[in-house]
Design brief:
Elements lengths: L5 H14 L6 H11 L7 H21 L1 H16 L7 H22 L1 H4 L6 H21 L11 H9 L1 H6 L5 H11 L4 H29 L4 H26 L5 H19 L6
């Protein structure tokens, strides 16, 4: 019997799609949803399922930013053949994304037992939601929002890419929250910070999904729940991306800060009352 049924896969796919790119922690929300539905959050199959349905959200990014991705990848290939093309910002940006992904890959592989063990606790999620909200608020206040996407540098990409490690080690901190906050501290404007977060997330999340696929298929989750969860994640994530880019163009991140504080406090209360098992 599958550890996750089709109905639960729909719910988890929707949660993943809504939260993957919003700075509220998809991992934290998935663990909360799994806990409320009585799904064992530390089960290998559940961990694998969560990673695989992320691929649906990443597919939404690939489709939404298809023209940008084609432009960047084309510039990269041209630069490999022609030295004159290597001054192109898109060529350099493609390399930056590759380099910026290395730290999270190294830490992810080295700390896998810790990430899937003690750090998978809902207590960690609750604390990370609250601490991460403070970081996000401070970054939004400190940042001067004066640099656009064309002003990004290798240093920006490496610092923002490396910040993904915070979310990897502390579920609830939020990959999007960590990367956007770092970009804001570096004085990127909110739209540039958000788009950079999207592009840097593509290789890291896709790699994680493919790496975990064997666990999801081989330890208790059937193909149907996986497909359903991934498709739902894709559809919801696409709508979420479109909404977020419009939102950050006109608003601060304060709404997300408040939401994270409320969810973190509520999760502490539910854990303390024994309603949820950590």
């Amino acid at each position: 019997m599958s550890v996750i049924n089709v109905g639960q896969a729909v719910v988890l796919g929707a949660v993943e799609g809504v939260t993957e790119f919003l700075p509220v922690s998809s991992t934290g929300h998935l663990k909360i949803a799994e806990g409320l539905m009585g799904i064992p959050v530390d089960d290998d199959a559940v961990v694998g399922f969560s990673a695989v349905i992320q691929v649906g959200a990443i597919a939404a990014v690939l489709v939404y930013f298809f023209k940008d991705i084609v432009r960047i990848v084309s510039a990269w290939f041209r630069g490999l053949r022609d030295k004159e093309e290597r001054t192109n910002h898109d060529y350099r940006f493609a390399w930056w994304v590759i380099y910026a992904t290395i730290p999270i890959v190294v830490v992810g592989l080295a700390a896998k037992p810790l990430i899937e063990g003690p750090l998978a606790s809902l207590w960690v999620v609750a604390g990370s939601l609250i601490v991460g909200s403070g970081v996000m608020w401070a970054a939004d206040q400190m940042g001067r929002h004066k640099r656009g996407e064309d002003d990004t540098s290798f240093k920006d990409a490496m610092l923002v890419g490396s910040s993904q490690i915070l979310a990897l080690l502390f579920p609830g901190f939020s990959r999007s929250g960590a990367t956007m906050s770092t970009a804001l501290i570096l004085d990127l404007d909110r739209v540039a910070a958000t788009r950079l977060s999207f592009f840097l997330g593509i290789p890291a999340l896709t790699g994680a999904g493919l790496y975990e696929l064997k666990d999801a298929l081989g330890t208790g989750v059937g193909a149907t729940p996986l497909v359903v969860g991934t498709v739902v994640s894709f559809v919801v994530a696409y709508a979420s991306i479109a909404w977020l880019l419009k939102f950050v163009a006109k608003h601060s991140f304060n709404a997300f800060v408040i939401y994270r504080l409320v969810v973190g406090a509520a999760l502490f209360a539910l854990l303390g009352a024994g309603v949820l098992d950590s």
